[in-house]
Amino acid sequence: xxxxxxxxxxxxxxxxxxxxxxxxxxxxxxxxxxxxxxxxxxxxxxxxxxxxxxxxxxxxxxxxxxxxxxxxxxxxxxxxxxxxxxxxxxxxxxxxxxxxxxxxxxxxxxxxxxxxxxxxxxxxxxxxxxxxxxxxxxxxxxxxxxxxxxxxxxxxxxx
Length: 159
Prior knowledge:
By secondary structure, this protein is an alpha+beta fold. The chain has a single domain (31-148), classed as 2-Layer Sandwich (Alpha-Beta Plaits). It is built from four helices and five strands; from the N terminus they run βαααββαββ. It has helices at residues 39-46, 55-68, 70-73, 113-131; strands at residues 25-36, 84-92, 97-108, 139-149, 156-157. The protein has a five-stranded antiparallel β-sheet. Helix 2 (55-68) runs antiparallel to helix 4. The mean pLDDT is 92.
């Protein structure tokens, strides 16, 4: 290993980064995102009246499953044995939105930012899928990393 963490080999070809020389540390990543909708769609979710079922419960499960499948979705992402994935969804009636927060934890040589971001993405897409029959104009927005700790680069907190 050259000591450089890159997705390119000596010939410029794509490869998975070699993290074998990195120390295993406790790592946590938190990502957030939201999906904005009509007040009527928010009401249906709140009242449990969406025909496809309990939107928030299904989206929570989908987000957890998405985090576990990240290396199948993101090229060159390391397959990880996640120690914890939590996906929280909150209905914001004032904004007619569902706020999603995903927290992923692991003890490993590489971080879990992509897993947290994937969990949020899959959760908001699931909300969209379950509600699109009544509101095709929903908008997914603000998917971002808000916290990262562990590893060589230390702690990151979004401003």
